[in-house]
Amino acid sequence: MSTLDTAWAIRELADFVYASGTDGMYQREDDEVVAEKAHVVEQVLDRVLPGWRARADQRPQKLREYEPWGHLRDCASRGIAALKRQDELREKLGDDAPLISAAQLHPWVWEGARSLWQSGHYRSAVEDAAKKLNAETQNKVGRRDLSETDLFKQAFTIEAAVAGKARLRRRSPDGSDTYKSEQRGAMALAEGIYAGIRNPFNHEDPKDIDEQTALEYLAALSVLARWVDDAQVEKGS
Question: Which of 51, 183, 178 is CA-nearest to residue 117?
């Protein structure tokens, strides 16, 4: 996935801020034009200020009716500052560690999580990402009779494929220790994800999780998704 074009993003945000603002008493551009610009701005903010949609929903209804573009304009201004000063902030705050974006994770994971992530429902976003990965794996090996941990155990087992039980091979099955280790690692990661992340969601109180925790969970799912996506399918006869 390509990286964000920072200069373009800043221009789009600034253009919206200007268009939706007032020149004396009246909005500078018609609502129709502002709405078109807002669509682009929303996509940029999803990348720059994750969780902004959830904060927008908390605005009082009367304020939303009085100034419908107000919150988006404020967020756009914040987005401009974040983009312009992101390198400076990382340097001055003493943390120059690499950043990870949910939108740059494996497509299966982000496609599953995207809509709920953007509305701030992080736990549900992780659950849907796990379901999406499970479904894509089922499709790849042609197994609808298994799901989650059992599915990955059978998909990555070193046992030979038989009719109706295809396998996923991360490398050529040459019987080497490396081959066995990679297959075992995929099974172990899948078990950890579905037993330690996905299943507890079904048994605990339905409280949400914070954004950082959710991002780390999605990162784990992304690793497994890439292994599944890159693996060769071995079919039995």
Answer: 51
| CA-atom Rg of the chain in angstroms | 23
* C-alpha of 76 from chain center: 21
Residues of the chain whose pLDDT is less than 70? 1-2, 55-66, 90-91, 94-99, 204-206
According to DSSP, residue 195 is labeled I
Phi/psi at 123 (nearest 5 deg)?
Answer: -60, -50
Query: Taking Cα atoms as reference points, which of 68, 96, 79, 107 lies closest to residue 4?
Result: 79
The predicted structure's pLDDT at residue 1: 46
C-alpha–C-alpha distance, residues 95 and 92, integer Å? 8
Could you tell me which of 84, 73, 80 has the C-alpha nearest to residue 37?
A: 73
Hey, which residues does 232 pair with through a beta bridge?
169
Distances (CA, A) of 108 to 47, 54, 236: 17, 23, 26
Q: What angle do CA 57, 22, 24 make, to 5 degrees?
A: 145
**H-state helical runs in the chain:** 6-20, 31-48, 52-57, 61-66, 70-92, 107-118, 122-141, 148-156, 177-193, 199-203, 211-230
Name residue 113's amino acid.
A
Q: How far apart are CA 3 and CA 5, in angstroms?
A: 6
3-state secondary structure of 27: strand
CA distance 56 to 24: 26
